[in-house]
Structure formats: structure tokens, C-alpha cells
């Protein structure tokens, strides 16, 4: 069983027909001549190959062996170092990086598909390069030209890795409580002191250097600033030189992601350089955060895709019971209605999830590469609206999907060697890190929906609905569903000042309702586009759409009903009764 | 943090006021004089103490260390053997056992609460004694007097353990494919040969002997028979004597339950004795299966209860963010609406789950102990209706609850030492073994609901609704909900012959819808009873009820809408498109 036969046909269909990628990319000067459908197809083919051949074989062994911490050093599982070096040589870290510093300058729409393939192959392995790409993004967006020239080529090439250092024991979801300090030096650098926890890829034995982006407070300040703090200082040739007061205190033992090092990092007067402006560290982080949050959403999507493939293959092979009227001694379990219901549920959620990832990626590309100010402004708002949905909904459904896929395996799904239980354990964290899904939902409802009194939400929904062709009961169902969603969101918006807990208490249900509606829209879009432009997929897409509307979409209405009950049932009860 | 402060006040409230246990027990001659509320309270107190002091300390170490297999022997984690011997000395294996053979003769209504406490303390540890009690039950129900005298005292005392040997590699959900053979011998015994997999507690190093109940086919037969096959044959003094051709081939490495041995068992001309009649093995297993399935449901409930306690304590202690308008630098996270929503969701699902467990236990008691044939007949049908719901709904919601509780912990929930991630891993199997929850749902809808054309369902629902007091919008909501459920079930029942896949494709949604409605009924019942008879609980119960109706119950309607879409969307799609 090979769980990472990447869905290349599906990806090509989405790029070519649903997103009209060539036209989209040609409309942006920085992408015209760089990205086109044929290049994208070749890159996806190669991503599928290298992840299948090089990365996926380490998935289970890395889980069994895990990362070790010995004498202050972090040791990755056997084979990681060799595979990592071969992987980064392919230029994958710099796929969407700035060409001025050695990146390939590809659009995020392509990046999300490559990320999906990589996470399908191995959640843990892909985090090292994903974090590195994220650090490069922040440095590119906010660093000085000197820092960019010094660090970006090393990061894009994979010679050095990157890490994000935000969390402290007392400062998780609430970063105001960060205690790490930065002392300004005469040469313009800072000395950073403090401890960080839960630092993914905080150290490892695969690269010469790790470049930490550290949130800290400049002495005397109460706001946060962002610093670049390398594990080893660059020498005069730009290579990793002397140590810099950055050390690993310990590593965490986790439910999953055992091949990924989760470190306690200690900074002891480590030399760092400001990224962006003083006391504006959070704003710098947030530039990057939209990309990172989407990337973590795609961890959920990649796990889901692997789970769908594994469960579907198993259901076609495993003989048990018979179909009604069958004369066989046993049939493959895919004949059973309940097994099919599970397979179709996880398939339709995964297929729509890929569209959400691409849609978010497209808005990121427009915001970054367009030369039309109006396009940039609108795309930026859509990025804001879609990012928390992509992060939370892709990872929440990602866990649902891996668990349902595991159920298809029966008892064999609980055994480690089958591999499906590892997907459940590995993907579980994606609902938590990079901002818990509760935080995402509050960002979505509080800032993105209510922040501009629903203006962005209404514009986005109206625009999406106009892309649907003709008239149909499904289109009317979506119009009614979104209309109800907007009505409930308006009801919340009107009460947000008088009742400041209403958003917090309703946020997850609202994000989920929006996600289910949006997936319905994506399914109808795919069915319509395939019917018109991809006859080989038309039947499947139409039937997946029928299934989704019948068997999944009704959840949205229930969620909105729950929200309309208000928050008194949540907030009214005395804590002592819990 | 101690996750097993058993909810003794809640249990007492349910026994005394909701189930009127004293009156119920006095109505059954075999229980009158044996079970009363004071005895039950004393037993629950002691169960809470011994599980907290003796068993729970092994929960995490057993998970870290796991069961080992060395030189053909199964070695349990450090401390298991000592704790097990101390545990069984308390008579817990024989709690509900037959007093004629050394059991305590207590009702299952008490047994389910003791089981919940034990599973809360340690999923893995409790399986050994739970399987032993299950084996004793089957022997007592169908074994000869000689076998009963020989084996039951050893099982009730815990000196010997029990195991159920059903699954084979090619025979999981479909037991017709079992290949294990039984060769009749002149002395009335049989020689058993074959291999079984996934045998929980198939062997260990804690007891002198393991008594296997093995499903096999007598040579020449196509139906299954049930055999008692001890690992070691009793000697003339009735103690464990010579070996009996029963050996362990290997043990499984699993997602969780690492302290529980899951064995491949090999039977090589092992001597066995028939339990029940030849070729009627499945019927014998099913006697026991109702108890076993309820017990596994309670694994889900026990995990849920532990998770609720852990998450609630954490939410009251963890400082992060502030409540709207708060002047504190940080508040405990329980002030946040989304955290409260999670805590109330898991609390209300767990509280109602306990009522479902007790309700099922009560019907088992009536069916077993009543001297009124009409009572026995009705209770047996209610047992049939409720058992698959208790098994599937308690374990499906059990996983949901542990996952939501884990989310309350944020990043700390993903770290092993916090303990909440172990609950997720340990309880996951309960949705699979003892008949997958899909199988439970098909049993529920196909056999229990449609099998008698809804007669039992309608009688049960009508009886339950009449127990509700007065008039209220909640009561009307339940009446409408159950009425719609019956309507949809009738629609399925009318089509079951013409469309034989409809039941299979709709079963899980129907079981879930019924479960959510039933939980609504239990919450309204608790609120009404507390309001009348337990003023100290009245406010909490009323508010939990409000929350459940507003924030959870709407799921039932969505599920019924999904079912009404029919099964064409499930069955119609060509397999090749998946």
C-alpha cells in the first residue's frame, strides 16, 4: 500500500479548469513568464516522485524511532539527514521564495499543492522545510537588505534551517505575557535572553545552522519586537561560525509528529537583529502568519488525502461480508453502505478542502504579485477572511477524516504497522499549534467578519455565488444557506458591543457553518466546471456533489441553529458548577 | 492533577432519585436483601478509593512501558501484577457474579458505575478483569454445572483470568469465515486447533491460568460452537496443572491501550469443552455480548469522565487572556466563551451518557432478575434496543469528548506527560472492537428497530416520554424529535425489502440521531428530578439541560435530514470513481 500517490489529475483539473491558472498567473507581472500550467505540472510530478521515493519511506521509521536529545544535541531519526539534504537540493524550500535571493518565485497556488503532497508523505519531515520557508518569508518581507542577502540564500538552499520562537510557558495564546528580553547594543544589534517552548525544529542535526525568529521585548518596552537570532553567527565568508548563546533545554515527548523536534530553547545573551520596526514584532509575525496558518491547514489536508487513499484501497481489498444478493462467499467491504458512506464523506471533504487551500493561495498571490491596487486591497481582505477558515476547517476536518479512515480499517486500523493511526496522531497537533482553532474562529468571526461590519464577508459571498452557472436547487440551497449565515452574523455583529462574549462563544460554530457552506459551493463549482470542460471527471464530480449536499451540508443549518440560541447558555452558568 | 475523583454525588443522585434504585431492586427477589442504596454507596466509595490509590498510578507508566513479549511469554508493565492481585482480592471481578459460585450477586446498574470508575482510572488495566467477568458470565449462562463449579470460583476470585477468542485474520466482522476446528473426543471433550488474532488479555503474567472462550467449527459443521479452553488444565485439586496446547504467537503494537496485551493465540489440539449446544455458539456469545458491549460503551464513558475532569481543572487553573472588562493581567481560561462551550459540551454529553449506561444496566437487571415474565420479555427487548446505542454512542461521543478535552489544554494537550492524549489513544479502540460502531448501528436499525417493524422502538419512546413531568417547550421538542425519528424509521422500514442497502447506508446517522434525542430526554429528566428532589443539584442540572437543548440537540435534526436524502447518493456511485 502506497499512501502517497499524489492526486495529480485532480490537481491539474483544479489549476487548469477551476482556477484558470494560466490566465490568473499571466495577469500578474511577477508571475508572467515564470509560472504556467506546464511548469506547474512538471513541478507537481517531481514533487510526487521525490516525496514518494525519498520522504515517505521515513514516515513510519521516524515515528518509531523518534527524535532523541543527547548531550544537548537533537538527533533526528535515521535517514532524515540524508533525505533532507537530497530534498533541499531540489530547491523545494525556495519554491515560492524571492528570485533575487535564489528562490524560484513560484505562486502560492502551486506551493499549496506541493505542500499537500509533502504532508501526505510525512507530516514530521515536512515541518523542517516548511518552517524554514516561513522564516525566509518573514525575513524577506521585513528584514534589511543586509539581512536578506546574508540569510535568504542559505535558507532557500536549505543549507540553513529556520524556526519561529513565540511561545513561553506563561505565554501561549496570549503573547502579551512574553518575558524574553532584548538589550540594545551599540552596533545596532541586540542581546536576547529568555526561554521559549514548543519550538518546532528548534534544533536538529541536518543543517549547519538554525535561524530563529524570536519574539521578545526590548528592555523597557511592553510591546513585542521580532529578532533574527542564528544558532551560529555567520563568519566573514557568510558561513556558520561561532556559537551564539542559543541552546536546547530539552525536547518534548508527544502524541505524534515524533520525527519532528519540539524544543525548549534557551537564549543566553544571544546576538540578534531586529526584523521590521521596534515594538512592531506582532505585525511582522502576522505577515508571515497568513502563510504559516495556510501551511498548517495543508498539513490537515495532506493527512486527509493520505487517509482517503489508504482507506479506499483497503476497502477495495478487504473481504468481509457480502453485498445484498451477492453470490460471492465474501465481497470487498466497499460494497457495504456504511463503508461507502465513510469513504464518500472523507473523499468529498478532502476534495473540497483542496479547493479551499487553492482559493486562499490564489488570494495570497493576488495580494503579493498583482500590480493593481484595487485587486491587492480586495485580495488582502479575502486573505484575512479565508486564512483562519483554511487553518481551522482543514485541520478539524483533517482529524475527522483520518479518524473515519481509521474506522474503515476496523481492528487493523488500531495497529501501528497499518500506518493509519499514525496519521491520526500526527495531524492532531495541527488543530492546536499556529493558533488554536478556537483562536482562528475568534479571529474569523470577531475581526474578519464583524471587524468591518460584514463588508468583506458579503462581498466575498456575493462574488462566489455569481460564479455559479445557471439555476438549480443546489444553487438555491447555497444562496439560502449563505443568506442565513449572513443574517446570523449580522445578529451577532449588532450585539457585539453590548455582549462582548457572544463572538467568543459562537465563533467555532460560525466558522464551521461557513466552512461547510463554502465546501458546498466548491463542490457545485467543480461539478459545473467538470461538466463543461472535463468530461472524464464529470460523472464523479456530479455524484460527489450530490453526496455532499445530501449527507454533509445539513450540518451547517444545525450549527446556525445552535448559534441562534445565543450565549446565555454558555456564559450564564456559574463556574463552580463545572 | 488527579483525573479520577469519581463523581460519587452524581452517581448517588442518579441511583437514588432518577432510577429509584431501592424500589427497583426490591422488586426483584434475587436482589431484594442483596442490593440497596447504602450498600451501593459503600461499594462505589471503595471502588473510587482503590482505583485512585492502586490502579490510576499505573496508568501512565503502563502506557510508557507497555506489554512485552519475550520467549513466548507476555509480560505486563511493572506494578500490574501486584496491583492486579490486590484488586481482585477485593472481589471486584465477582461483583455481579453468581453468589452460588462465589460472586457478590450485585445488579448491573451498580456494575456500570463501578466499571466507569475503573475505566476512568486506567483503560488498559481494567480490561483484564472486565474480560474475566465476561467469560464468567457466558460460562454461568450456558456452561454445565461441572464446568461452572470448576471455573467460576477461580474466575470470580481473580485467581484465573478469562479471554474471548473470536476474530481470525479472515474473520473479523464476518464470523462465518472462522476456520478454527474442534474435533470431538470420546470423553465428550474436543481438541481445538487454529489461530485467533486481536485477543485482549490472551495471556499475561498476573494469573495462574487463562480461560479462553473460543468460537470454532466442529469438524464437518458450518455453524459455530463455543468452547472453554484453559491455558492450563485443572489438576485433581482444581488448580492450574499441565499445559494445554495454548500458546501466544505474538502481541500487537497499538495506538494505545499499551498496558493491555493484544495477542495472536495459537491452539494446537488444545482440549476444550462445549459451552451451550453444538452449532449454537453464536447464540451463546450473544448472551454475553450484550454485557460486553455495554462494558465497552462504559470504556468510552469512563474515558470521557476522566477527560472532563482533567479539562475542567486545567481550564480553572491555566491563566491566559482576560475576560471582557476584566482588570486582571490574566484570567483562567474558563472565562472564555469558546472554552466554556467546550467544557459544557463534554460535560453534558458525559452526564447523559451515564444515564444511558444505567438505563441499559437496569434493563439487563430486569431481564435477569425479575420474576415477572412480562417484565422480562419487555426488558429483554429494551436491552436489545439500547445495547448497540450504548456501545456505539458512548464510545463515539467518548472519543469526541477526549479530543475536545485535549483541545482545552492547547499545546500542552499534545505532550505525553499531561496524560490527556493517552485518553484519546486508549479510548479510540472502543469504537472498533466488540463489533465496530458501524456494525452496532446496523444491528440497531436493521434488527432492533426494523426487526419488529418499530414495535419495541415505539413502546420504548412512548414509555420514556410519559416519564417527563408537566408541559414545556423542551418536552414538546423531544416529542417532535422522536416523532420525526419514528417517521424516518418507518420510511426506511417500508423500503427495507425493495432496497436492501438502505439500512446499511443510513444506520450510523439513525443511531446517532436516536442517541442525541435520548440524551435530551435524559437531561430533561435529570433537570426535573433534581428540581423536585435534589435542590443542591437543581441549578446545575437545569443549566446543563438548557445548554444541551440549545447547543447539542440540533445535531439530531441534521442527521435525520441526511437520512431522508436516501441512499442513492451512497450506493449509486461506481466503485471505480472512488
Automatic annotation (TrEMBL), chains A, B:
Q: Which UniProt keywords apply?
A: FAD, Flavoprotein, Oxidoreductase
Instruction: Please list the residue ranges annotated as the Acyl-CoA dehydrogenase/oxidase N-terminal domain.
Output: 42-159
Residue intervals of the Acetyl-CoA dehydrogenase-like C-terminal domain = 471-573
* Record has Ribonucleoprotein as a keyword: no
Q: Where is the Acyl-CoA dehydrogenase/oxidase C-terminal domain?
A: 279-441
Where the record annotates domain Acyl-CoA oxidase/dehydrogenase middle, the positions are 163-269
Q: Which InterPro entries match?
A: Acyl-CoA_dh-like_C_dom, Acyl-CoA_Oxase/DH_mid-dom, Acyl-CoA_Oxase/DH_mid-dom_sf, AcylCo_DH-like_C, AcylCo_DH/oxidase_C, AcylCoA_DH/ox_N, AcylCoA_DH/ox_N_sf, AcylCoA_DH/oxidase_NM_dom_sf
Q: Where is the signal peptide?
A: none
Pfam families xrefs: Acyl-CoA_dh_1, Acyl-CoA_dh_C, Acyl-CoA_dh_M, Acyl-CoA_dh_N
Q: Which cofactor does it need?
A: FAD
Q: Which domain of life is it from?
A: Bacteria
- Family, similarity comment: Belongs to the acyl-CoA dehydrogenase family.
In terms of PANTHER family, this protein maps to: ACYL-COA DEHYDROGENASE, BROAD-SPECIFICITY LINEAR ACYL-COA DEHYDROGENASE FADE5
What's the protein here called? Answer: Acyl-CoA dehydrogenase family protein
Task: Provide the species name.
Answer: Shewanella jiangmenensis
